[in-house]
Amino acid sequence: MRRLPIMLFTLCLMSLVLVASASAAPKLSNATIQPSSAWIGDHVVITVQVDDPAKEIARVEGVCVEYPEVTSALNDRGEGDDKQAGDGIWTGGSNVPSEAFEGTYHIALWPRNAAGKAFKVDDQFVKATVEVMLKKPEAGAPAAAAAPAAAAAAPAAPAAPAAATMRDAKIEPATAAPGAHVVMSVALDDSAKSVDHVQAVIVEYPVMTMPLKLGDGVWSAGFDIPEEAPAGVYHLDLIAQDSSGKAIEVGGQPLKTTVALEVKSTPIVQTAVTAAPAAPAAPAAATMRDAKIEPATAAPGAHVVMSVALDDSAKSVDHVQAVVVEYPVMTMPLKLGDGVWSAGFDIPEEAPAGVYHLDLIAQDSSGKAIEVGGQPLKTTVALEVKSTPIVQTADSGNLQQVAAPWRTETQIDKIKAIARKPGNAFRFMVIGDSRSNPAVFAQLLGVAAGLPQFDFAVNTGDIVPQGQAQQYAFFFTQIKDVTWPFLIVEGNHELGPTGGKLYEELFGPTDYYFDHGGFRFVGLNNSKGVVTPQQLAWLNQTLTTNLRKVVFFHAPPSVIKKWSFHAFSAGAEELTDLLAAKKVERAYVGHIHGFSVAQYKGVTYVLTGGGGAGLNPQIAPGDFHNLVIVETQPKGLRETVYKPDGSSFVLDPQKWISGKGQ
Predict the structure, then answer these.
(1) Is 89:77 a contact under the CB 8 Å cutoff?
(2) First-to-last CA distance in the chain?
(3) In CATH, which of 2.60.40.10, 3.40.50.620, 3.40.50.720, 3.90.79.10 is domain 5-134?
(4) What is the pLDDT of residue 135?
């Protein structure tokens, strides 16, 4: 469950807002990732030189710029008995996940202090960035050596190593004032070597985490209690995790232990009084009951609902927070209705099979856990994720039959049947990246259905999460009530396990054009991160016309710098030069989730990738879900941008190009 949709983007933003003031500014240099070109399953290692004269950096966090919900921790290799102490090299490694797609990805390296705050120097964040290209191995690459033939009889399997255990967990001192330095530690017996690291999570504030480091056989970490910390008892879960960041399980439960830290404010001298009034009777402590998640077993993409009843006569509970124990950075608030706290979510399509535990934690208005008997008030529900078989081709069931009405040539024929003479105004819709959030996509389709008539719609790609047959089948159920012609431009998520072959079986040609109302509309396939010379030659011929011209493609060109963090490069310069030379009026793109506008060499590019997928905060203030209605005019095009709630605004391109937003 490495990715929960939008809430994790929010957490990433929250973490960046916290800024530390460094007495002697830290510096990052010589950041590398090796290998710089990799593919699924490959192990990559990030290394960075950290100059930290004030010794304020507690951790370095890697955040994928394109998918900020994907994070990893770097460790200071200068720590530990067998390392050269203090060499300032921080490093961390991970395997490329199975759901990765081809393209260039950037990992921002953020140093943070013990409180989790980032550093600023001259009003600029201290960070470094590394770049990795994910690319499939070329056909004909040497294969791994064949395994030797099996022996007549396999040797008996060795006895399974003993399960890892934790012991001697403590925090010293266990009682301290704000500003004091405390150290938490735990010993771990792990003969199977299954534990890669130990992570501390503050139960009362689960967004606050800290890695422990191994030395002398003990995992430990120290930090200064923030000066602003309120008095009270705080609990730190120490969770053993593997190299992917998933909690180690023993007996079906995450391997963890908890230490308690009491923060006591410095004594406050009160004015003397003759006698203190008797304290009122304490209200009954809050209790939780009937916690559940339904269904308790589900496949990726399924919708599940967790709920818990809470008896709280003292009205001490402000909200209930769910924390995924295996990935504690993933959190979600529950909402109160009919006396029950509940929340629903879609299991991410890329969630690995396994059992996940969600702690439901009662918190007060400050975000601190409610305590009962000195322990946080919480309960746990378990969710088993079972992968569904991946259908590689379209020969199962009646998928091709269902897809037939939506084939590209069929949709173009429907458009041609609409009589529009050159000069007659008409309207069309553009939407993109509608995968992964059916509710938002349904809202936007509902908004579109209530608008004045338009002639056709184009989706700029990423209509499914992973290009699987069952996902296409679901997409067709999503659009079954659509009455207007609906064209698709292939996106990278349509490639999936067949490399795009299934998409072509279902929809037909991936480069196409049609003429309508004095315009030539062109759909161009750059789903694999490239526009080839053959495509450029075809496009040059297709755009050689006196008709007005509009082009649709999925990934934006990297030559537009503000979108270069998630764009395509191979053929980008040649494509933009051709669009400029042919005086294309608009190019509509997606891939980046949200809304944005750019102008390059005289061509206006409108990015509308807000059809449902998790939003990219890098393009704020355009980080909202959207569709665009385009109205043709004698001179120019007029766009109106609609949000899922039906609100809208008329686009002022120059305002957005200048970065001033709405």
Answers:
(1) yes
(2) 35
(3) 2.60.40.10
(4) 76
